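Take a specimen:
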Amino acid sequence: MSSGRVTYRCSGSVISDRYIVTAAHCVRNLIDDLQVVMVRLGELDTRSDIDCDSQTRCSQAQDFEIERIIPHSMYDTPKYANDIALIRLRRRTNSCKTLFNWKFQHLILYIKPFPPKTAFISPLCLPTGQYSSVAQNAGTRAIIAGWGSMTAASNTPSPMLQWVRLPIVDNTGCAEAYQRFSANSRTPIIVSQSQMCVQGRENMDACQGN
């Protein structure tokens, strides 16, 4: 929010009935008089109050007040190291729980049925323990989603939620590429093992606001 005007700034993901995970740069060191005051869940098209998908399921977005913002304690602004933050909502979304199934060795997410007005809200299932590094294997396809800009030259967010699958790449090669890219910069970009790199393609990549 800036001077009483609410604008969309960043995307995030529901990981429980009270917490959202997002980027630390979305909630720290904001320019001008911007403040993070609200989280909207279940949004699809920002131009309409009621959204419908291809299966004609319709939903109304819900706004949640924020109780607490928790950026990573070692977030490094120039290098974007530890660029992650949690947002605790003041009230709960629909409850859910995660159960690990040892027999089939995969995570199963049990979610209570959502009423029509929250049809587009469901939490991510996060890998834990020995499976936490599986998602970082090079070649695994990751999903990037958000309302970010459609071109690198524009700061205007997309009104419609966009998403794309992109391959995860080896951090060593990624670090070398960023080192060459930022060689003449005052703050060279350093890729650590705690970060994840994906390879964009022509007209298929993340952009400002995602």
In short: The longest strand covers residues 62-71.
